[in-house]
Amino acid sequence: MHEMGIVLHLAKTLDETAEQEQLTKIGRVVLQVGEVSGIMTDLFTDAWDYFKGRHPVLTESTLVLETIPAVTWCDNCKQTYETVKYGRECPYCHSGETWLLQGNECVIKEIEAE
Amino acid sequence: MRLITLNATVTASNDRDAAALREKLVSRGTLLVNVMSAAGSGKTTLLSRLIRDLPDVKIGVMEADIASDVDAKTIEALGAAAIQVHTSGMCHMDAGMTAAAVEAMDPSLRLLFLENVGNLICPAEYDTGAGLNLMLLSVPEGDDKPLKYPLMFQKSDALVVTKTDTLSYFTFDLEKCVERVKKLNPAIRIFPVSAKTGEGMAALEAYLRERLAALTEGTDHA
Ligand SMILES: Nc1nc2c(ncn2[C@@H]2O[C@H](COP(=O)(O)OP(=O)(O)O)[C@@H](O)[C@H]2O)c(=O)[nH]1
Ligand SMILES: [Mg+2]
Ligand SMILES: [Zn+2]
């Protein structure tokens, strides 16, 4: 369900871009997805295939997903670590005073179009 | 084919819709309050209480639900304007859906609540165009929720800790909860309330009146 919402917004943003840039056809769409964004890539691709059929400029498009690694900052010992490997607790000092620096995003990096 | 660099968040179009709705509501003097929480935290009960406690304010409620319309009937029975918005399977309200729902409401309403879909994740990611983001956390859910769902606590202007009448039955450390939440969002306002006994409701109501007054002042001088 979550993936459907994101795809809906993605398609809308691309429709708007197509209008602004007077594009008739969009090819490759490169999307950067954070490792802990909670987006399931399989569900996402399915939802995309469904929606692209309903947006004329997108019918021939292909979706390329790039992963952005998740990195957490420890505010106690002032260093970063891999979020997926260690979770919320800092592996160096075991502090819980930690924040996600990156890995939660979903960004349209670039598109190929004419 | 040419390459176009966008570097736009997927929700960029939603952010534009949200900004447009926010502007429209401010100029009309309506405070839209986006009410977010897990299912069962007490959103409908709190809104019912507010309607009864603030008889002088013209209140409307938009009940977003994946399918049912029980909540809208509850609100209507109290004499307030209510509509049910079905999200057709979507786990959150976005700005476009909210704008469409607002269209169906009387424009003279001053305080317009959007009861968002019950979950702590997706609603936090979509700006609805609300002038105030209000989050609920009920005592039975536990004081560790800020650690598990930080985004919603960061996006909210105010947190209402609900069902405080049940504090003696649960190991919910209010002080610790406040500390965790403030760390995520130092500017957040926190209101512990019980919609059942009425405890703490006066402070929350004063806050809502304050935000409403600030909105109207803003338009008068605009
Ligand atoms: N003890 C107690 N129960 C409450 C309070 N507020 C709501 N509830 C109960 O919590 C349940 C869910 O409430 P509801 O308002 O429907 O939650 P919603 O799903 O967030 O709209 C209902 O059984 C309510 O009676 C409260 O302040 N105290
Ligand atoms: Mg409800
Ligand atoms: Zn550390």
Question: What is the total tally of β strands of chain A?
Answer: 6
How big is the Rg of chain B?
17 Å
How many individual helices of chain B? Answer: 9
How far apart are the first and last residues' alpha carbons of chain B, in Å?
47 Å
SSE topology string of chain A? HEHEEEHEE
Globally, the shape of chain A reads: elongated
Identify the quaternary structure here: heterodimer
* CATH domain class name of chain B: Alpha Beta
Strand order of the largest sheet of chain A: 2-1-6
Strand % of chain B is: 15-25%
Question: Rg of chain A from C-alpha positions?
Answer: 18 Å
Characterize the largest beta sheet of chain A: strand count, sense, and whether it forms a barrel: 3 strands, mixed
CATH architect. name of chain B: 3-Layer(aba) Sandwich
Percent in helix of chain B: 40-55%
The structural domain count of chain B equals 1
- Which CATH architecture of the domain at 2-68 and 103-113 in chain A? 2-Layer Sandwich
Task: Give a quick rundown of the structure.
Chain A is an alpha+beta fold and 114 residues long. Chain A contains three helices and six strands, in the order H-E-H-E-E-E-H-E-E.
Structure, described:
The complex is a heterodimer of chains A (114) and B (222). With 114 residues, chain A is an alpha+beta fold. Chain A has a domain of 78 residues: hypothetical protein PF0899 fold (2-Layer Sandwich), CATH 3.30.2320. Helix content of chain A is 31%, strand content 32%. Chain A has a three-stranded mixed β-sheet, with helices on one face. In chain A, β1, α2 and β2 form a beta-alpha-beta unit. In chain A, α1 crosses α2. The longest helix of chain A is centred in the N-terminal third of the chain and has 19 residues. Chain A is elongated. By secondary structure, chain B is an alpha/beta fold. Chain B has one domain: Rossmann fold (3-Layer(aba) Sandwich), CATH 3.40.50. Helix content of chain B is 41%, strand content 22%. Chain B contains nine helices and eight strands. Chain B has a seven-stranded parallel β-sheet with strand order 4-3-5-2-6-7-8, with helices on both faces. The mean pLDDT of chain B is 91. At the A-B interface, α1 and β6 of A face β1 and α1 of B. The complex binds guanosine-5'-diphosphate (GDP), magnesium ion and zinc ion. The site of magnesium ion has 4 residues of chain B, from α2.
